[in-house]
Every structure is written in C-alpha cells, then in structure tokens.
Amino acid sequence: MMDKQLQPKNKAVKKGLLWGILIIFLLTIILVNVTNKKQVNLKRDTLRIQEVIKGDFEDVILFNATVEPKTSVLVNVIQGGAVSEIFVESGQIVNNGTPLLKVYNPNAELNYLTQETAMVEQINNLRNLRVSIKNQQLNLDQQLLSIDNDFRNARRQYKIDSTLYKKEVIARNDFYKSEQEYTFQKERNNVIKKSVSEEKRSRVVQLSRIDTSLLNMEKSLELLHKNKENFIVKAPVSGLLSSFNPILGENYNQGQPIGKIDVLDGYKLVANVDEYYISKLYDGISGSVAVNDKSYEVKLSKIYPEINNGQFKVELNFKQDSLSADIKRGMSLKTKVFLSGKSKALLVSKGLFYQSTNGQWIFVLNSEDKAVKRNIKIGRENPFYYEVLEGLKAGDKVITSNYDDFKDVEEINIEQ
C-alpha cells in the first residue's frame, strides 16, 4: 500500500526537474546570445588606439587649391569671318595691340565700302551747303553796306539842303525831294537791317546744325575706318596668350572667343571646399600656403554660394607679391585657412569611428585588454583632431578605427 502512494509524488518531482532543466537550458542559451551580442573579441593589430590629449586646438581647414592668373581677358573676334592669316602662337607673350590673326569677310568689306562712299558724299554735300550759305551771307553784307551808304548820302544831302532852303538858296521843290529821299532811305535802311539781322540769326542756326552734322559724319567715318581694322584681331591687353588654337580657313562669328590672355600681374588660388564650411568662411579670412618650404600668406577674396556635388568654389589672393619663380600657373597647393585663433582643448585624433557613431560615443579602454562604449560630446574639428566637450579626460585611450562591423556591441575584448 505504501509503494502505491509514493508513485504519484515521484512522478511529479521528476516532471518538475525536467521543466527546471529545460528552463535553465533556455536561460543559458539566451544569456549566451545576449553576451555574444554585446561583446566581441578583436586583435589589437586590427584596431587603431589613440590617447586623448590636452593641447592647442587650431580651428583650420585644409584643401587643395589651383594656381590661376589673377586676371584673364578673353580674346574675341570683333568682325566675323574666315581666318586668312595667323601671326602668333599660343604660349607667347604679347603686348597690347599686337596683331594675332586676320579674318576675311567679302560681304562685310563691300558693306564698309558702300557706307564709306555714302558718308563721303554726304560730307561733301554738307560742306558745299555751308559754303553756299557763307556766300549768301557775304552778298547780304555787301547789300547792307550799299543800303547803309545810300542812307548816309541821303542824310548828308538832306542836311545841306535844309540849310540852303532856310537861306532861300534852293527851291522848295528841291528841298522836298531831298527830304523824301532821306525819309525813304531811312525807312529802307531800318527795314533791311531788321530783315538782315533775322536772316543772320537763321543762318547762324543753320550753320551750327551743318557743323554738328559734319562733326557727326566725320566721327562716323572715323569709326567706320576703325571698324575696317577689326578684320585684324589684336591683343586687348599685354600678357601670356593661351587657349589660342585658330585654323586657317575656319569661320568665327562676331563676338566668339578665340583665346585668352593671362595678365602677368600676379596669381590667385581657386579651390572647391566641402559645403560643411560654407557658413564658417567669409571674405577676408586669412590662410597660408607652403611652396618649396616657403610660406605665403593668403586671404579669401570671393565665395561662390552655388553648391555642386557637395562643394562650393572659393578664390584666395596672395597678400604679398605672387610673381615668384616658385609659384607657377596650374600648381596644386595645399592651402590652410584659419577659422579662429589657437585655444586649449581636449583633443582626440580623427578617425573612421566618427562615421560609425556620428561623434556621439566611442570605445574607451578600461584596461589593456578591454574597451567599453562611452557616450561623448564632440565640438569643433580640424583636419587632425576633434574637440571633446564631454565624456573623456586627458590620458584616456580610445579606439578611433572603423566601428561598422561591431557598432552594436557594448564591450570589446582585445586580444594580443
């Protein structure tokens, strides 16, 4: 009877043990999985380990800039046509006004000849009209002199006859004739003088207009002669001729560029900079470049706000004379631009960890063989360091290499 009562109890104990073993097994598996997820074993030589330091932070950016002429002037074809002669080659030093090439355009030449003939004819007509008006004015002056002389004679005779008539030397009829002649010549003289005066004013205005027209026509003729010289393309400034590759017989349109001249007054630097810095740069900010162990100070002179492929364009001018034998067009120079002065800061070397963490955390060694995740706060950066604002102290050793393969773990076991 006693054996029969104990049998159910033994079964319950066995069932409980089995469930306990199963639960412990499952918890063990879960614990192992969790542990494996949060830890990783890595060889030391696959990691880049750096020490956090306290030092001078120099807020600078580095980029490559290309040396270009400070001033370049395009050479354009003023009169379109086919190239008939080439006088110089690309790469030559030319002076202002040096003939570069000649174009041929028969239609334009015929048009110039027709215009010139018409202008010369108009100028001759205006000059002839001017001479005619001057001759008419001379005739008027002569008539006026004759009329004035008649008036003077009539007045003198009237005075003589008045005296003689009072003395009863001449008859009354003769005196009246003399008086009438004087009155007529006096009125005639006044009318003619008034008319001639108005005529003179009119002719002065007419001559002034003719002179203005003549001056304009002569200027137009002079400009036409200068335009005829446009068949020869000349250097607009002195300097180094470049990008000049015309071909005999090739047609060029009016205003089409055919080359450029680099004015030898110095150089500038042109660079493309990451758009991250567009709000940090401004005109006048200083920088430097090193050429053959010699440092040259530069100054940002222009910022182009357009963003292309994540970059924007800037120009920098040399503060001192850039016409140095060390600096040549086309050189690529490593340029340093100072965003601010030096200041003491906690620094960590730049590395690929930033791309994995966005600077929000980093692995810090708490012993020679273990590193743990720690939250940090990054401030400024330059090409060499990040400024650490929170989470680290001087002397801490951190892993700065790429975290992409293990950024979900909490600890790294470092193996030798």
TrEMBL record:
InterPro entries: MdtA-like_C, UPF0194_transport. It is found in: Cell envelope. Its main location: other. GO terms for cellular component: cell envelope. Residues 359-404 form the Multidrug resistance protein MdtA-like C-terminal permuted SH3 domain. Gene3D superfamilies: 2.40.420.20. Keywords: Coiled coil, Membrane, Transmembrane, Transmembrane helix. The chain crosses the membrane at residues 16-34. This is HlyD family secretion protein.
